[in-house]
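Predicting holo structure, magnesium ion bound.
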Amino acid sequence: MNSALTIAKFGGTSVANYQAMSACASIIAQQNDTRVVVVSASAGVTNHLVSLCHDELNAEQIDNIIAQISTIQYAIEKHLPENTTRTDTLKGLIDELTLLAKQPSLRTNDMLKEQVLSMGERMSSLLFADVLNVHGVEAEVFDVKQVMRTDSNFGAASPDLAQIAALSTTHLAPRIQAKVQVTQGFVGADEQGRTTTLGRGGSDFTAALLAEALGAQLCQIWTDVIGVYTTDPRITDKARPLPELSFEEAAEMATFGAKVLHPATMEPALRQDIKVFVGSSKEPEKGGTIIVRDCEVEPPYRAITRRKEQVMVTVKTPKMMYAQGFLAKVFEIIAKHELSVDLVTTSEISVSFTLDNPPNSVAERLNRVTIEELQDICDVTVERGFDLITVVGNHMQTSVGVSSKILSAVTDYQLRMICFGANPHNMSFLVQEQHSADIVKQLHSVLFE
Ligand code: ADP
Ligand code: ASP
Ligand code: MG
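Done. Tokens:
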């Protein structure tokens, strides 16, 4: 392990404008050990790019979106000292985007979509490197595609860890002493060099993967909140920041909807025992959450998470009692499409499970195909409009009174698919989406206030 190396990642709001970028640069200027900086696209830009890829737009609407993206980026660039190379590069990127956005096949071509989606990080990294230079930190842009090797699963690509380690050693490690390397989160490249992306919010994952590949000791996630909270502070102002979390608790929280960390962020940290810090780039003096392998205290309740847009699928066959292997067939279809199922409940003749269904995602399309294939072998009922609520904690399945305390806090609401006991760190259930915020508040008051 390179004990003196830190990787820092700045999210969308942290690089939203010149002022926000300057705050991030001040943080880096005070840290000699941070040699690699991963940036997200400036806030709002990726949403615009998603719209270009998915929405049916006329030429005027396309121009309008590109104009909005340009406005965000040029508002940053106008504060920077004159540099024709950078100005030309930025213009080149906007031109490239314009060309891609006007391809008639964009909405059906996953390869082109990836190129469009990667543009936000390409622009923000170009600008942020120069903001660092203004702050006296010698920095340069590093093209993450040189090292972030993934499979070709466009829109939700999986990293090739061995290749990322080898490529980072060859291409990235030799550069970090001379200059801070500013690189793109979220973006990767497959074996043929085609652009890929790691899924929405993937920049956190990029930072953790690079920390692993370079043997860093610390991965900092700088965002718009002063750490990981007991629940999403946007749901209740009673949520409070947690000074410490274990890798496992953080992994559960990320998987079950705490947007502050991409679901896969903790995987590299767990494998290589890399500490993860989460803090606010606007208020670094307020400290943050430090995520480590073992915490001193392991409370039964640590946090509550919510994941929206869940689909509940129930498959039923009257023959199930006799039909050995039915479950295996169902899960074979799910596995074939690489969908991950979080909650499962079973009865004699039916099985229910949840699918994540964020709009405009790869999952949305795969869910549709999967459900169609399931209909060939059994009766399928699909119910929508659910949110998934999870209480994250420790030793939950072996402590007395944990499930009853949680359930008695929400007796006024209909709960579906209660799942408890498969793992010491969580209890989850589905609720109707219109009640989920109230349920989180209610649970929070009983468990934490
Ligand atoms: P970034 O652009 O920096 O990656 P994100 O919007 O992806 O930022 O993540 C930060 C947001 O995550 C916060 O503003 C907050 O609303 C949300 N969030 C959800 N759950 C939590 C939690 N448990 N603790 C802190 N933030 C949370
Ligand atoms: N820019 C990407 C997104 O908005 C990745 C990230 O911000 O982490 O999803
Ligand atoms: Mg994020």
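The chain has a mean pLDDT of 94.
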